From TrEMBL:
Gene3D superfamilies: 2.40.30.200, 2.60.120.860. The lineage of its organism: Bacteria, Bacillati, Bacillota, Bacilli, Bacillales. InterPro entries: Phage_tail-like_C. Residues 148-247 form the Phage tail-like C-terminal domain. This is Phage tail protein.
Amino acid sequence: MIRESLYFSFAGRKSTEFPIVNVSLGSGMFEESLTSSKSIVETSVAGNNVPYFQRIKREPITFSLRFAFTEPWNDEMIDEVIRWLDVDYYEPLFFSSNIDRIYYGMIVDSIEQIHNGLSEGYVNLNVRCNGAYKYSPEITSPIYEIDNEDLIEIVNTGHLPTSPLIFIQKIGDGSLTIENLSSTDEVFFIKDLKDNEQLTIDCESRRIETNLENVNHYDDFNDNYIELSVGYNEYRIIGDCRIKFEYQFLYK
């Protein structure tokens, strides 16, 4: 996917803005990792030849890139490329062969320039991602108008469960319940909401925000945040409100 792509986008800018293309040197088949590397964390105990398994540790995704200049460069062009690539935080990165797989990466180590002395050549760089997974583009559901009770469906096409952002505008005072009919043990419940109150529920960071001053709902909440399982998810929402979901699918 990476090696076969001529173009890529990093930090909101496309490589087509510059006279560069993504290249691979040599001939033959491309070699790429499908997943991040992982290791087994285990504990050995004296007298037992079989170690105790504890967990799997997945390493952040890393890979190298090489892009070639399609025309002779000058100092101004090189300065602009450095400003674009040499950032100090993770930025979205995706490739032209599959724009629906997004890495959040940062250039690490030094950026190496290989050239022939005539302002022609290519650049090598190494990328380290913020974790072991790739992401889909951000997905925003429709705004669901819930009148007392309704059903909604969300299909997670990723490889792993994912935690959404939930935006709620309460209609009338009362409580709100979200039951996962695909998983009978998952019920989201929050009470004492006010008419026209607006909530943002960050299920990954486990954070609740409201537009009302001097109000928090942590004591009004059953502490059961929503997780979108892989595959089909059907939810029953009980309580008058307007509600929408934002999420990204995760891929190994």
